[in-house]
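Q: My labmate handed me this sequence with no annotations at all. I'd like to see what the chain might look like in three dimensions before we decide whether it's worth expressing. Could you predict it?
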Amino acid sequence: MSEKTVNKKKKRLLFRTVLLLIMLSLITFAVVSALQGDNETVAVGETAPNFSLKKFGSDETVELKDFRGKGVMINFWATYCEPCKDEMPYMEELYPEYKEKGIEILAVNLDTTDIVVRQFMEEYQLTFPILQDKDGQVMNLYGIKPIPATFFINPDGTVEEKVIGPLTLSKLEGHLQDIAPSS
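A: Here is what I predict for the chain of 183 residues:
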């Protein structure tokens, strides 16, 4: 074989190899993208997935479906989250008033250490239900990645709004008003 023919074959092999690598990369990207789509958060307008968690410091189990007919705010938080610390006093301030209006605040804690959560609850004097999600089951169900993350669920069980990041007092109150049951 001539040197010219050998060079042509090498170039053709190189071209085919590069083309094959590009195709494999695209297929890998498509598969990974499809699998990650399964972890998307619950969308506004969807029915909120039911869950069952223990109330912190007790054997009482709280199930979301038990609040049908009420507005429900689900807040995912942890003691190490600075923005979570900022919004907790707002939630506590509004809780008594909105509980009487048929709205429940459920704070789903993602910490694994009970003593830290207990100290946090005492420091902030929290009276709304704190639910424990130590194994991250509900966090995964709702596709929570950054915290705080809050879902506002109307009385028929549909997600009215979701907020990723901290809430101000006025925003929190506005969202609670939006999910209040009709009188």
